[in-house]
Design a protein that fits this description.
mainly alpha, DNA polymerase, domain 1, globular, 5 strands, hpI Integrase, Chain A, three-stranded antiparallel β-sheet
């Protein structure tokens, strides 16, 4: 199969299985890189080529364990679901183990200073990341219908692992969010008047409900400043704001707040979980709010909760008493 045909078949399979656009970009990138490597290294069985490529990533490119496993998942998808081939046993190849890293967590004062250095839409997004424990992509993908002001709840649709869940809508951000949504309504009305105003519909919903795409309920809560081409269909529509804009706003706020820790959008989610644990909330509740499949993933926050390491005071402090 030629590279162009392989690329088209992989993309069709990904979209048929209703995988996210982010996953599509990642898998397509790895599939193309692996295919080009196979052209340069044509000898050997499929198992040997896969093992050789993964070894090349680890030995020659020195990529992280996360990157190795990401490449393996993409190649596995290619063979099993696109080429319909069983790739068999990898023999002596052992997938790299991802190191168990302790997450970076902000103190409550640091969160207060960080949010105090932010304004407008970026403040609202950062407030939801910390106040609701949302992943950045989950926050940006929120639709108007997912915000329930009466029940003070946010409904996360098809989050990581394609799972739905409900999280709290923090009271301090509710009024600002309500006013923001009214501004979004006016923008949507102008888009409709200009012959636009249809939102991207996930899966087959666009065919099932052909008129729903232009309904206000389906518009993104945090829309982009202007319409642009849809990365999948090419249709001109208003998507949500780009994640890089949030990253830049957080970086600027970090500098203004004089916080020396390495901060990303996920740091606010880590801080959400840690501060809930420190306030006495049980680990199972936090697991549900975060949308973790296994409680073992949530347990990582027990290593950073409380003052000191594992909440234990240093014996040096006793000497100073």
């Amino acid at each position: 199969m030629k590279l162009a045909e392989l690329r088209e078949a992989a993309r069709n399979t990904i979209r048929f299985r209703q995988m996210s656009y982010r996953t599509e970009k990642t898998y397509m990138g790895w599939i193309e890189r692996f295919a080009r490597w196979c052209v340069d290294n044509p000898n050997g069985t499929h198992e040997e080529k896969i093992r050789g490529y993964l070894t090349h990533l680890a030995r020659d490119l020195n990529v992280s364990a996360t990157t190795q496993n990401q490449a393996l998942n993409a190649i596995n998808f290619l063979y099993r679901h696109v080429l319909k081939m069983e790739i068999g046993d990898f023999g002596d190849f052992t997938p790299a183990k991802r190191p168990r890293l302790v997450p970076v967590v902000l103190s409550k004062d640091e969160v207060r200073r960080l949010l105090g250095a932010m304004r407008g839409v970026h403040w609202m997004i950062a407030s939801l990341l910390y106040g609701s424990g949302l992943r950045l992509e989950e926050c940006l993908m929120l639709r108007i219908k997912d915000i329930d002001f009466d029940r003070r709840a946010i409904y996360v649709r098809a989050g990581k692992g394609n799972k739905d869940r409900t999280v709290m809508l923090p009271a301090p951000v509710a009024d600002s969010l309500r006013n923001h949504i009214e501004q979004v309504r006016r923008v949507h009305q102008r888009d409709l008047a200009a012959g636009l105003g249809d939102a991207y519909m996930p899966g087959a919903l666009g065919r099932k409900y052909p008129n729903a795409a232009k309904e206000f309920a389906w518009q993104f809560v945090f829309p982009a400043s202007k319409p642009g081409p849809c990365p999948r269909t090419g249709a001109i529509r208003r998507h949500h704001i780009h994640s890089s804009a949030v990253g830049k706003a957080l970086k600027a706020a970090k500098q203004q707040a004089r916080i020396d820790k390495k901060i990303s959008a996920h740091t606010l989610r880590h801080s959400f979980a840690t501060h809930l644990l420190e306030s006495g909330k049980d680990i199972r509740t936090i697991q549900e709010l975060l949308g973790h499949k296994n409680v073992s993933t949530t347990m990582i926050y027990t290593h950073v909760a409380s003052i000191g390491a594992a909440g234990v005071a240093s014996p040096l402090e006793a000497l100073a008493a």
